[in-house]
Amino acid sequence: MNALLLNTKSELKKLLIKKKYLVLTILGAVICLLRLGGNMLIAKVSGGDVVIKSNMIISMLGFTVDILVPLIIFMAVTDLFASEIQEDTMKAALMRPQTRFKVMTAKYLAAFFAGCAVMLVMFVVSLLVQVLSGNPLSDIPRTLLIYVVDMIPLLSIAAMALLLNMISKSPTLAMLLCIAAYIFFKYLNYYGSTIGQMIFTAYSQWHKVWIGTLLPFGALISKIGILFGSILILYTLSYIIFDKKDF
């Protein structure tokens, strides 16, 4: 376990030194500020007749978990798998005294934690914008819990990206496949009726299942089964392919 944690930390450091992740996080913060600016502009143009009082932290959650963080995870998984395979640096990781399962798991967890880190940054930024806008602060512990709960489905997003990286021959192709598959699944979530709700991407805002709703026990079990069953299937298939690869 200690070796896995150390390897995960090492893989996460690889990601954090890349400036593109910082740039995307800053872009997310800028979008949050632009939203505040838009609200203030509407209030000024209307002469104060139209004042938008919204919970910026919750308002930014959809953008964060459905667009920004999945993109971060797709990039992270691609950097740690398809890019390393193409650059022939994956061999160095496999030469360490550890199993391929631990190597893959460490990289997978690093990509997941990178997404979680961006989630927390966006929470803090949204909180600061909420204060600057003069809007009242709602229940901060509950709002933070919502962000934490919504980190759980990121495991399935990372697992999907992992499998697509296993079958891709280049980082560019891997990234394009991740984005295309995600958009397709999201389309099914919104327009595919029953079928769409059986796909793991339908539960990106996982807090809606647990916080503020009273779903029947059977419905909860089915949603848990869909999410974690998808993670297990995607991860298992990824490992089977990874274990058979000749680097």
Describe this structure in words.
The chain is 77% helix and 0% strand. It has helices at 2-16, 19-45, 56-59, 61-80, 82-86, 90-94, 100-132, 140-149, 154-166, 171-191, 193-196, 207-210, 217-244. It starts with a helix and ends with a helix.
Descriptive key words:
13 helices, globular, 247 residues, 77% helix, mainly alpha
Brief write-up:
With 247 residues, this protein is mostly helical. The protein contains 13 helices and no strands.
Q: Taking all residues together, what is the mean pLDDT?
A: 85
N-end to C-end Cα span: 25 Å
String of helices and strands: HHHHHHHHHHHHH
Please give the radius of gyration in angstroms. 20 Å
Structural class of the helices, strands and pairings? mainly alpha
Strand segment count: 0
Instruction: Enumerate the spans where pLDDT stays under 50 for 5 or more consecutive residues.
Output: 41-46, 48-52
Main pleated-sheet profile: none
| Residues in helix, % | over 70%
Number of helices: 13
Strand content: under 5%
Taken from the alpha-carbon principal axes, the silhouette is globular
